[in-house]
User: Fold these one by one.
Assistant:
Number 1:
Amino acid sequence: MHPITNDLGDWPAFLGYNKLKVKEGAQLLATIEQDPFIVIGEFGQGRTAYFTSDCAPHWGTREFMNWHYYKEI
């Protein structure tokens, strides 16, 4: 477990995502259909995070938009 995904439980379904490869040294935190879904790593002196879907309604289902971990800004 990682603090980013710790205690999230079951995720709502997503309607789409971008496929990518996990770079060597990166940490895979979650998958969707066995493809990387959330990946973290480092680049230079910084940290990176990849979330391969979109938080907008066109890829996030109604269940995702109503999920208690999703917040509108």
Note: The chain has a mean pLDDT of 88.
Number 2:
Amino acid sequence: MSGRLEGRRALVTGASRGIGRAIAEAYAAEGADLLLVATGLAQLQDTTEAVRALGRQAEMLAADVADRAQAEGMVDEAVARLGGLDVLVNNAGVYKAARFVDFEEADLERLFRVNALGTAFAMQAAIRHWMGADRPGKIVNIASTAGKWESANQSGYNASKHAAVALTRCAALEHGRDGINVNAICPGFVETDMLSELDAHARILGVTADEVRAGLIGRVPLGRLMTPADIAPLAVYLGSAESDGMTGQTITIAGGMRMG
């Protein structure tokens, strides 16, 4: 590794597993110190140990980004524990598969509170901290290809991720002159715990989970699902000085599943 994030201090939500953990480890390998956030401290232990093994500072915090006070508080904690904040990675997210007509109010509420409002709350807190600062920062939102186009049986999830994409673009437009970069990564199908919802898709479609998985892979020109390790290097780039000229972008990484 080349120290592309040397001296940077980053807050990563949803850091206990999957994409969040991969990003945390990649950031540490490139020289960043980290505040790692998840809903429970026990979930963060493995990620914390991995970051510390790379010689970087790793702090843990239990917080639910769906709660505004907790989302804002984690930004304050990052500043206090790390001595400042340079990169906010909004990775925390939830998923639900259901037919459009079957989404319950509670399902929609949870999807929007975590995926959209949680992202907004953290962004607002970070941007307020950076406005007028000599060293403004960068925001990396983990959205989804679901936030760029339509999908069957996940309308609530798609709508919440469309909101995350809109927040990315609007915040980038408003705060570019503050020197703040705001971008989003839009992964396609990724090998994470969210794929456990394949069973729900299968029940809706009347097929097996293996058939659903095969169908997903069949849509990807590279012939495989993405992995968290595919996503992390892009997050490193967006958190580094290399991306200083980029803002308001929603970058797809989906094995060519959809191009353009």
Note: The first strand starts at residue 9 and ends at 13.
Number 3:
Amino acid sequence: LEKHGWVVRFDWPAWLEESGFDIHSKEVLKEANLETIRKVITAHVRGDRFCEGHLLTMLEDGYFTALLKRIEQITDSCI
């Protein structure tokens, strides 16, 4: 994910606190732009370092399917 620009360097804990963005909600992804999606992916990847299995839980919950669908929507609208 880092190699392809989906994980970015920024203060993700501060962003989560300041923005109030619920990174566990599939609903909020429906309006997310690519910058926000990169931040969300970064927060999940970094979070998995503190809570092993977090990414697997999000995958099993369908969160990443919703995330990929949103990316597809955004990129389709750019064509």
Note: Helices lie at 12-19, 34-50, 54-60, 63-77.
Number 4:
Amino acid sequence: MKKLTLIALAMSALGAASANAQSLKFTGTQLNPVDSGTINVNGNSSTVEMGALVFSTGTKSIVTYCADATSPLNNSNNPYSVSGVNMNDGSGLALAAKILATNFDVATNKDQQAALQVAIWDALYDNGSSFNYSSGKFKVTNGLSSSVLSLASTYYTNGKNSNPTTAVELFTSQGAGGQSQLHVVPEPASLAVLGLGVFGLVRRRKSSSR
């Protein structure tokens, strides 16, 4: 009986692990064109495209925002672990999730999506009391207009002051070529539909860190 119990527990644990694993394939950006700019993260500079991304799970398309500005992204199937984000623990990840949940459904053009991405990155890397793109671990050094940066500040403040009821998942990359992502659950129907009309494959990072 004890052996059967141990086998049952092991099978249960295996099932739980499988439920929290996902293979995702990057299929392109939601909009075309997207804004691009030069960022500096922890002293390393790179030129990146900024906006909502679309991934295929094999059965459907999902819209995400990058949660790792330092990693390049390929368009192969990559393994991810999936977990819910606790938006009340005071971390940069919690703030980034609040910003995404609060502003996801209003970021529908390229400037709005770039602003939302920048606000998310600033939260993840600096977790400050307000948006600041010119100092800290994360900086925007070139390419984005003042209106986009102003909108990023608005999204940051809105998220920080909100108490969203929408859940956010973190897809954590488990291998080279992947890139961690944040995903609103469930996606608003209008954006989920837009996500099916993917425009052109892109590389998230245009140039290597230097």
Note: The longest strand covers residues 21-29.
